[in-house]
Amino acid sequence: MFYNRISKFILILGIILSTSISGHSWGFFGHKVIQQLAIYGLPKDMQKFYHRNMTLLVETSVRPDERRSSDPNEAPRHFIDLEAFGEHPLENMPHAWDAAAAKYSVDTLQKYGLVPWQVIKLKERLTQAFYKKDKDSILFYSADLAHYLQDAHVPLHTSLNHDGHLTGQTGMHSLWESKLPEQNLSSYNLKHQKAQYFKSAEQEIWEVVRASHALVPQLLAIEKQVSQNFTEATKYTVTERNGRSRRSYSDAFASAYNQALGTMVQDRMRASAEKTASFWYTCWVDGGKPDLSQLLATPRTKAEDKQLKQEQKAWKKGTLQEKDLLLTKIRISLMDVVEWIGTTLG
Ligand SMILES: [Zn+2]
Questions:
Q1: Rounded distance, CA 135 to CA 292, Å?
Q2: Checking CA distances to 226, which of 55, 186, 234, 290 falls within 20 to 30 Å?
Q3: How remote is the CA of residue 334 from the centroid of ligand 1, in Å?
Q4: What is the rounded distance in angstroms from the CA atom of residue 238 to the CA atom of residue 258?
Q5: Listed range (20-34, 73-87, 98-112, 327-341) with the worst mean pLDDT
Q6: Structural domain contains residue 77
Q7: Does residue 235 lie within any of the structural domains?
Q8: More confident residue, 159 or 345
């Protein structure tokens, strides 16, 4: 019996150690995966530079979220609560910052979110960085621009009801943007279109916001519908941490919900990657198409090119995860590990 338990323990530990432990919460996992996928959609002239710096770009894809704890002005840059702007907000909202600020006041915009304007601000900074051929700034602003743009693809980042808390569906935010991608990524088709040039970045980002917001009623309604097949006990998992109990959606509910949503999360992830590549590309074109190979400290090696080819092939076939070519793996927190071992050992 004891040996049985020990061998089970070793087996589990093996599984855990073979799974890299990484950040959390479009969730950290989502941002990092999208960042990597975006690189495969770039034209050759840009791709080799971005691929050389892929680890850095993937790691810093979540830097704006990390900044929230130290910068009180950071939070509103990640969302826009459209319902706060009255009836038909998308039709009535001026797209340009100055006009929107004149109509609603800067304070109101700061309260209800800045994400579309933040994207445009970063788009201009990245274009400048290309123009100056400043490698560090190119990487910095590529990562930041990508983050806010990816946030704008998450439906609940465009709603006052951002966690489902206004409709008795608290916990929806991390269910949709973290748990579902982590649980289902291997079944997603994430091959997206190649980067394209945007004549109007402003029009593009507002289209992203519109498409995200249009999905909010549907994702909330489907949650209610799926809930009919669950009881309170099967729908949620309650965990105790530091004397506090935390309620979140159960794995079984997340699976059923994902099934009912169809390809919604996959489609938003794919659109996110495609738009990230397109925004980077648009900035590069507007910044005078600098020769990025000159910004590499050493020329690319044959091995690097071979690796890129292999990754791109896997991306097209949808086997990046299966072939262990994703830089970011599913997160397992230390507490999950402890709980898991605890329940298994009984
Ligand atoms: Zn964010």
A1: 9
A2: 186
A3: 23
A4: 20
A5: 327-341
A6: yes
A7: no
A8: 159
User: In this structure, is residue 295 part of a structural domain?
Assistant: yes
Helix, strand or coil for residue 35?
helix
Q: What's the number of domains the chain is made of?
A: 1
Q: What angle do CA 320, 325, 328 make, to 5 degrees?
A: 100
142 CA to centre of ligand 1 in angstroms: 15
CATH number of 142's domain: 1.10.575
In the numeric block, the tokens 């059923």 are attached to 256
Taking CA 344 as the corner, what is the angle to CA 343 and CA 346, rounded to the nearest 5 degrees? 65
Ligand 1 mean position to 240 CA, how many Å?
27
Q: How much distance in Å is there from the Cα of 25 to the middle of ligand 1?
A: 9
- Can you state the percent helix, strand and coil of the chain, rounding each to 5? 65, 5, 30
**Distance from the CA of 269 to the center of ligand 1, in angstroms?**
14
Q: Residues with Cβ < 8 Å from 13, sequence gap 6 or more?
A: 341
pLDDT in tens, 83-93: 999 989 999 99
Give the DSSP letter string of 166-192: GGT-TTHHHIIIIIHHHHHGGG-----
- How many angstroms does the Cα of residue 157 sit away from the middle of ligand 1? 9
d(CA 139, CA 59): 11
Whether residue 212 is predicted with pLDDT greater than 50 in this model: the reply is yes
Q: Give the least confident one: 1-15, 102-116, 201-215, 290-304.
A: 1-15
pLDDT for res 329: 78
Task: Tell how far the Cα of 346 is from the centroid of ligand 1, in angstroms.
Answer: 39
| The pLDDT value given to residue 337 | 53
